[in-house]
Amino acid sequence: MPRPATYALLLALLLSGCATYSLVEPKRTPIGDLYTVEPQIPWSAAKSGKYEIWTVDGRLLQQLQFVNGLEDGEPMFKGNEQYKKQVFRKSMPASDIMELVVDGLASDGAQKLATRNLKPAPFGGQPGFRFEANFVTKDGLEYEGLVVGAIIKDKLYLIKYTGTRAHYHPKHKEHVERLIESIRMQ
Amino acid sequence: MVIDFDRVKLMPRPILCCLLLLSVATATGCAQTKTLTRSEGNRPPLAGARVLLMPADIELYELTVGGLPEPKADWTASARIHVAAALREELTQRKAALIFYQPPRSDPPKEYAHTQLVKLHDVVGGAILTHQMGMGPSLPTKEGAFDWSLGQGTAVLREDFGADYGLFLFVRDSYAGAGRTAMMALAAAGGVVVPGGRQIGFASLVDLKSGNILWFNWLMSGTGDLRDAEPARSTVRSLLADFPS
Amino acid sequence: MKPVAPAAALIVVFLACASCAAPKSSPDALPDIKPGQRPSLQSDEAGLWMQMDRVEAGLRTSGQIVADARLNAYVREVVCRLAGPYCADIRIYIVETPYFNASMAPNGTMQVWTGLLLRAQNEAQLAYVLGHEIGHFQRRHSLQIWRDIRSKSDSLVFFRVLTAAAGAGFVGDLAQLAALASIYAFSRDNEREADDVGFELIAKAGYNPHEAARIWEGLLKEQAASPKGKPSIFFATHPSTEERIATLKTRAQQATAGGQPVTVGKERLLAAVHPFRSLLLRDELRRREFAETQALLDRLFENGAGLGELHRLRAKQGDEQKAVAAYDKALEFDDAPVDVHRALGLLLSRAGDKAKARSAYERYLQLKPDAEDREMVRSYLRQLE
Q: Which helix (H) or strand (E) holds C328?
């Protein structure tokens, strides 16, 4: 989740002993319990419960975030008090899920958030949605985002790709689009 | 402020946090420099090149008796002059020319494009410090390689200044004042360790044609002095250890 | 060999001397800054300016800045009316954040937060807050506080070193608490002084001085609605809101005893802020502090702006019906945002009222044919068939 590298964030990294990243090879890979994808290139991956983050150059430069099977009433993201108020409901239409994602980005410090092209889109053959977003961090650096998702068996699945507008988002956008196309239910 | 507020309002720049953390984590005062360079391709020579010095982020502090860093405008002003002179000397020795960045105030969209690059460099520098210099977890996708870039957007700097390379500099330097020094002596007599001043910095060289970071160096030491010309020259030399020649 | 005996003696002295770690006096009273004055390069004040210059450079290109020329011109006009000859020394930055605050740095950087612009009911209230900040600048409070912290931490570190040498760690914490409390007390005195200056400035500029207390009363209502506890007064950097209201009310009664005409400027403020109202409301609602926001909305908007969104987001028992009712009411006014139709469509569709939902979606698409989510809204329409 792009945010300025605040003192608190890095301190948390240091204190928590840091996330460890493992290599994801460019072959068919399971994501959570529901589906598999075929990455085009190697990624570095860190997992924690229902969340997975992939990056090539570092999560503040670009990151691919997977949310796997959020349940009705679960907050969108773990973390501080603000996040606990942003709760997924299985009755949410795509417009509301988009709002939830955007509010999550805002809680992380994203400014001047704008969304584009919210439309229905297949998620591994299931009915889902996608949209694009752009924002600026508090430090003033521009970012781009692409989000796809679906509610399957009352649970929310999301794939969120964010990166700096200059260089890092475009660097792997095509790879991400291919990865999304490759989604296959297990 | 008009009311109480418990939110952090001033977000430190990304690099500053990394470096501050490193200073917290490390105890010794030995000068450590660690250089990483682009591993593929030939390191292009600097002879005949024009190097654009991006606005150097330098600040000097005096440590009060109580250990608070008091910002010193006069020391900082001197340091900026000494560092610029030292850099010019180092580059002249390598037969390169130093150009100073000037914001194009009359062209706001252009100025905006430049600042986006500087901000991007901040984040890339932070990623280098985090993932490649041991301040954080390593990334399997970056192991064994040094391939960081600002992207082709750096071409605007190349065009606007006729420069081949961009040089980014960041220094935070604190010096124990007289009171602090006396305190340290008093404390030592009582068997108590009280820390003195610290010098933290990084420098990076970017190829403005490709946007690739050719060379990145960070420095942390308990000695070094930027307030006077000669010690500043020696600090700059340390900071530019293994600089392309 | 540790010099234990002298250290122990000093500890006794410190413990006995109640004001050693918490000196009562402020540093020697500083004269006010003069218009156009710049500190000499060697001074501690110049060091603070240098730091704030760097912060300001970051602020200028921050993602949070609201650059709109008209809004900035309006705020600048109010500031300059109050600041007089100091106007040229002040640079204003409007920062998008839903919290009520403004701040002033020693180098003349003034931040005005959009949460303040949302909460001010009229220009006089805004002017009072800006006047308070100008007071900090004129009286050089940041420098005074820095010097205060510096001198107190100086004496504190001696104390801590001596106690560490003597092996008595726990006493250090008490001394630190006392020093902190004293620093906070000094800060509260500065805040009272800034309140005074703010009051003087608005009275002189012809604003109704009763409005100063009113903005605090509004804020108090908001805070009272919140389930959160109040911070400890002991470590508060500002006097209690109740104290400030009482002080300002008394002063206002004295100031208007003569019956001079005064302005409030309600229309001017509302006109300046109106183009941003949807944005400010959305930022406020995003905080998801619904009790506080409800108190704020009740105070500010007779036409119920923002209530529909509040009920929709809060989504508790009965909120869906309240949201629909609030949106319907909002549509009676010309300035209802187009998104109200889409929100109604989604709620009515969930409530089972297909016909009304359909016409809400169609109205949305009619009013905003190039909406960024038109494909999705068309799919909602298809689902209703």
A: helix C319-330
